[in-house]
Amino acid sequence: MKKLENFYENFPGSYVALLTVVWVLLFHLISIILYNDPNFSLFTHYVSDLGASTSGSVIFWSVNMIIGSPIRVLIGLYILGLLSKRGANEKHIKITTYFMVIGAIGSIIIALNPHDTSRFFHLIGAFIYFIGVVVIQSFYFKMELNAENIPKYLPFISILVVVVYFVFLSLEIVVLISGFLREIACFSEWMALFSLMAWLGLHGFYTHQIK
Q1: Gap between the Cα atoms of 37 and 201, Å rounded
Q2: What's the rounded mean pLDDT across residues 53-78?
Q3: What are the distances in angstroms from CA 202 to CA 24, 97, 158, 199, 207?
Q4: 148 CB burial (10 A radius; 0-12, 13-18, 19+)
Q5: 33: helix, coil or strand?
Q6: Is 70 helix (H, G, I), strand (E, B) or coil?
Q7: ∠ CA(94), CA(98), CA(99), 5° rounding?
Q8: pLDDT score of 1 more than 90
Q9: Which of 13, 37, 172, 187 has the lowest tally of Cβ within 10 angstroms?
Q10: CA distance 148 to 132
């Protein structure tokens, strides 16, 4: 894993991670403004509603989603470089890398297929993205828990992301079957987004500290 460790040493990943948090939150805020619905709230709209074909935010939201996908992969590789230096299992690193690419592909499919006009492919992308995130964060949790000199709040936030994503999935299944709990399902998807931003921010903060 020497190349990955060299990437960690040379790539300004901590700054990229912290700036990505600011950028993602800002572009979602701008997307909400462009969406132009006075009734918009975290309880009435899903994150992906910002990419609906009839919304004023569709182009801005979709482009930023596509741009953000490879950036998140680079940040992920940067953190894997640190974990490699701290003695993480090489096989776990490789599996995580594969699923980072898979998750990024899912994210791009979501961005290119609005749920109101291409629901089937949107759901395919969402499924791929969900699997990617859950596998990635599960392996981060395992590696960070066992790695040398890694603060315990990092594996905690990794497994928290997994928990929040499963909560969202469970609620969404209830919505699809019965139509109930839609408001809570909407809110839980936003919490899933915010949990990922917390993950990025904490990892960016920690790697900045140790460098």
Answers
A1: 30
A2: 94
A3: 15, 20, 10, 5, 9
A4: exposed
A5: helix
A6: helix
A7: 120
A8: no
A9: 37
A10: 25
In the numeric block, the tokens 């569709």 are attached to 58
- Tell me the percentage of the chain whose pLDDT exceeds 90: 94
Residues in Cβ contact with 203 at an 8 Å cutoff, skipping those fewer than 6 apart: 17, 75, 79, 154
In this structure, which amino acid lies at residue 203?
Answer: H
84's tokens: 């490699």
Q: What is the largest CA-CA distance in the chain?
A: 52
Other C-beta atoms lying within 10 Å of the C-beta of residue 130: 18
Is the distance from CB of 96 to CB of 139 less than 8 angstroms? yes
The H-or-E segment that residue 95 falls in is helix 90-112
Mean pLDDT of the chain: 95
Over residues 67-124, the pLDDT tens digits come to 999 999 999 999 999 999 999 999 999 999 999 999 999 999 999 999 999 999 999 9
